[in-house]
Specification:
The complex is a heterodimer of chains A (about 425) and B (about 140). Chain A is of the alpha/beta class. Helix content of chain A is about 40%, strand content about 15%. Chain A folds into 2 domains: about 150 residues, Alpha-Beta Complex (Aspartate Aminotransferase, domain 1); about 260 residues, Type I PLP-dependent aspartate aminotransferase-like (Major domain) (Aspartate Aminotransferase, domain 2, 3-Layer(aba) Sandwich). In chain A, strand 11 and strand 12 form a beta hairpin. Chain A is globular and about 75 Å long. With about 140 residues, chain B is α+β, with helices and mostly antiparallel strands. Chain B has a single domain, classed as Sufe protein. Chain: A (Alpha-Beta Complex), CATH 3.90.1010. Chain B is about 40% helix and about 20% strand. Chain B contains 5 helices and 3 strands, in the order ααβββααα. The termini of chain B are far apart. The chains are: A alpha/beta (about 425), B alpha+beta (about 140). At the A-B interface, helix 13 and helix 15 of A face helix 1 of B.
């Protein structure tokens, strides 16, 4: 069972997508912009931009360091953002939230700190065929370093993981299972709760890449039953440079320090240094304060709009786009899982994705083209590249219709035989 | 200058992209190189057969990727065949100037169809890929 399906049935009478769009200054300044690449990075609402600017104007000071009022204020704002992240994920304890640069850094942190300690020669790490490179390469590096084996849970022609093969891939040597919550190239919502249950029963820990899920589906790490969850601030309408790693407190407490430096220590002497408890143990040096504050403001904005209402809005756009784009001659949708979020990948017969992208760009339509950092998933479908349209809170039906019209124009100019 | 699709996808470019010339393997090739664009996955292989004097008798290509990469490779094979090594390298530099230079040549001759690439920075690497393969092949 998934988290998304029941929410689509809720009425949207108190939620107006056009009002949401007005929260984002970039659309006022770029009226012709049809932005369909939120999957790469999301636009920022004025409250986030203002929060960052106000912080620089009124409250700026380094965090966790000074005894003066400004420093206390900035520290309070920083830790408020940590609590906002805890609430966003329904984590039990704010000490379980580590601020990192983004999902990629969070996964690397787990691989290097937890992974290096617990993975030995002959052990196994399991990923899926649709993972983003950021949830493949850190594990490959770890396997290579330790003499461990990377195993892959395959997907079917719809882009759903073959759950029936999972038990056969789990065994006494499986230490880590790393899966996406939502596929960034196919849009598949993975059955993370079920995967977690079986993985943990086999004695493995579960690391979930939530980079593409956090903006689009409600996340409840208690319900998911995983051990680690990462997401990136810039995809949930926050600035670049900050994201969060959630980890179960006992695991974080047992993990060795990752980056060494100021702020993560209790005391430093040349003969012995002692370290702080989580989360500060994993936050060395001056953090990306503006990134974290912006992330906090973004999560507050999402909470005010309602994660479930945003998800339902995007769900109806995805349905509209699947219908209209999928009906265009020569267009084939890639990624047809029964449960999807906010992402439509497709190919156009006889026209390379990059050429489609350039043609759409000339109409003011921004989509992503290429392998989307999921080369194994593309290989699985025998493709070099797809065109990917992805939706955000500010996306509208007009965006979908503009995309359809743009594709028809692209086919007219670029179609084979021209 | 207002941009539209025809700025980049001129008739000649579409023609070479959709009906490329000299595409396929080259048995008996004396020089070969493959260049990838890791950002987009485009890949072009250029093979040529040169005589002892360094004249390019035959030039063929294979490509995986977008229309611009294919069109540019196809144009290359037509323009480089029959040239000396030095002339072929000069063509590669001319293409680079046309696409990248702040002050491009006023008349790029047979390379003119690719002038539109200047207005599409994200596609420059597609246009130059085959020519980088040619340079690499001739460097060996």
């Amino acid at each position: 069972m998934t988290l998304v399906t029941p929410l689509k049935q809720r009425a949207l009478e108190s939620f107006d997508p056009r009002l949401v769009r007005r929260d984002f200054p970039i659309f006022e300044r770029n009226p012709g912009l049809v932005f369909l690449d939120s999957g790469a990075s999301a636009q920022k609402p004025a409250v986030v931009i203002d929060a960052v600017a106000e912080f620089f104007r009124n409250d700026y000071a380094n965090v966790h360091r000074g005894v003066y009022r400004l420093s206390a204020r900035s520290t309070e704002l920083y830790e408020d953002a940590r609590e906002a992240a805890r609430h966003f994920l329904n984590a039990a304890d704010a000490r379980e939230i580590v601020f990192v640069r983004g999902a990629t850094e969070g996964i690397n942190l787990v691989a290097q700190s937890h992974g290096r300690r617990h993975v030995r020669a002959g052990d196994e790490i399991l990923v899926t065929e649709l993972e983003h490179h950021s949830n493949i390469v850190p594990w490959q590096l770890l396997c290579s370093e330790k003499g461990a084996r990377l195993r892959v849970l395959p997907i079917d022609d719809r882009g759903e993981v073959r759950l029936e093969e999972l038990d056969g891939l789990l065994g006494p040597r499986t230490r880590i299972v790393a899966v996406s919550h939502v596929s960034n190239s196919l849009g598949t919502v993975l059955p993370v709760a079920e995967i977690s249950r079986r993985a943990r029963a086999a004695g493995a820990i579960v690391v979930v890449d939530g980079a593409q899920a956090a903006p689009h589906v409600p996340v409840d790490v208690q319900a998911l039953g995983c051990d680690f969850y990462v997401f990136s601030g810039h995809k949930v309408y926050g600035p670049t440079g900050a994201g969060a790693l959630w980890g179960r407190l006992p695991l974080l407490e047992a993990m060795p320090p990752w980056q060494g430096g100021g702020d993560m220590i209790l005391s430093v002497r040349f003969d012995a240094t002692t370290y702080r408890d989580p989360p500060h143990k994993f936050e060395a040096g001056t953090p990306d304060i503006l990134g974290v504050l912006g992330l906090g403001a973004a999560l507050d904005w999402i909470a005010a709009k309602g994660v479930d209402r945003l998800a339902a809005h995007e769900g109806s756009l995805l349905a509209r786009a699947t219908r209209t784009i999928g009906a265009l001659p020569g267009v084939r949708i890639v990624g047809t899982a029964r449960d999807k979020a906010a992402i439509l990948s497709f190919v156009v017969q006889g026209i390379h994705a990059h050429d489609v992208g350039t043609a759409l760009d000339l109409d003011g339509i921004a989509v992503r083209t290429g392998h989307h950092c999921t080369q194994p998933a593309m290989d699985r479908f025998g493709l070099e590249a797809t065109v990917r349209a992805s939706f955000g809170a500010y996306s509208t039906e007009r965006d979908v219709d503009a995309l359809a019209a743009g594709l028809e124009r692209a086919r007219a100019v670029l179609g084979p035989g021209r | 200058m207002t941009l539209d699709a025809k700025t980049l996808y001129r008739d000649t470019v579409l023609d070479h992209g959709n009906r490329p010339r000299n595409e396929g393997p080259l048995p008996g090739a004396t020089h070969e190189a493959t260049v990838d664009n890791p950002l987009c996955g485009d890949r072009v292989t250029v093979r040529l057969r040169a005589d002892d004097a360094g004249r390019l008798l035959e030039v063929r290509f294979e490509a995986r990727g977008c229309l611009i990469a294919r069109a540019s490779a196809s144009l290359l094979t037509e323009l480089a065949a029959g040239r000396t090594r030095e002339e072929a390298l000069a063509l590669a530099r001319a293409l680079d100037d046309l696409v990248e230079a702040a002050a491009p040549p006023l008349d790029a001759g047979a390379l003119e169809p690719l002038r539109g690439v200047r207005e599409f920075p994200a596609r420059k690497a597609c246009a130059t890929l085959a020519w980088k393969a040619l340079e690499r092949a001739l460097a060996r």
